[in-house]
Amino acid sequence: MITPAPPAWRDESRAPDESTTAWALAARGGDAVAVEYFVRALHRDVLRYVAHLCADPQAVDDLAQDTFLRALGSLHQFEGRSSARAWLLSIARRAVIDGYRYAAARPRLSDVPDWQPAAELAQPRGLPGFDEGVALLDLLAALPVERREAFVLTQLLGLPYAEAAEISGCPVGTVRSRVARARETLTALLAEAEAEAEAEAEAEAGWERGVSPT
Questions:
Q1: Three-state secondary structure string covering the chain
Q2: How far apart are CA 214 and CA 197, in angstroms?
Q3: pLDDT digits (tens, 9 = 90+) for 58-101
Q4: Residue 70 in contact with residue 78, Cβ under 8 Å?
Q5: What's the per-residue H, E or C state across 69-124?
């Protein structure tokens, strides 16, 4: 008995973006298993991206689900000209924008909740210059949304600048500028936070020794 060769989209030697694109193309052709692979591979990225853009942490899961429903409904239009991840994140961005428009049309019942609890669920660890990624969540909130989006796409999700520009609908140079400015702001804020933490630690140590800080 001859064992059939596995589908081409299951080639484990592919780069991650090549794999997800192959899965999307196979899913477009009606392969149910490829659909599952596609959703599993990109679900976390969609959650992270939406969490950093959305002002309502309670809406993150719904927006991610909406993103995949939109994507699966329009897979027939995907031709693989860009990576499936970039294509999917573009859909996620539109889902967030539509969510804002829908929220704006409803009566406001309370203050907009903080987005950080949702982002913490998908926060990466070990980023250079940030202690286990913890400080980054607090500092990202200080960035304008355009710079935060550019930073998240390129530095957290690892997209090429060209794909980030395609998702954001702006030139590559603009994305590079936004990322550079975001880095400058984050570095300055991090240095300020570390200085404050050191000062507090020194003051606490002084009190423990019974020495009043000057």
A1: CCCCCCCHHHCCCCCHHHHHHHHHHHHHCCCHHHHHHHHHHHHHHHHHHHHHHCCCHHHHHHHHHHHHHHHHHCHHHCCCCCCHHHHHHHHHHHHHHHHHHHHHCCCCCCCCCCCHHHHHCCCCCCCCCCHHHHHHHHHHCCCCHHHHHHHHHHHHCCCCHHHHHHHHCCCHHHHHHHHHHHHHHHHHHHHHHHHHHHHHHHHHHHHHCCCCCC
A2: 17
A3: 888 999 999 999 999 999 999 888 899 999 999 999 888 887 66
A4: no
A5: HHHHHCHHHCCCCCCHHHHHHHHHHHHHHHHHHHHHCCCCCCCCCCCHHHHHCCCC
CB 113 within 8 A of CB 71: no
Are the beta carbons of 172 and 162 closer than 8 angstroms?
Answer: yes
- Quote the pTM value: 0.64
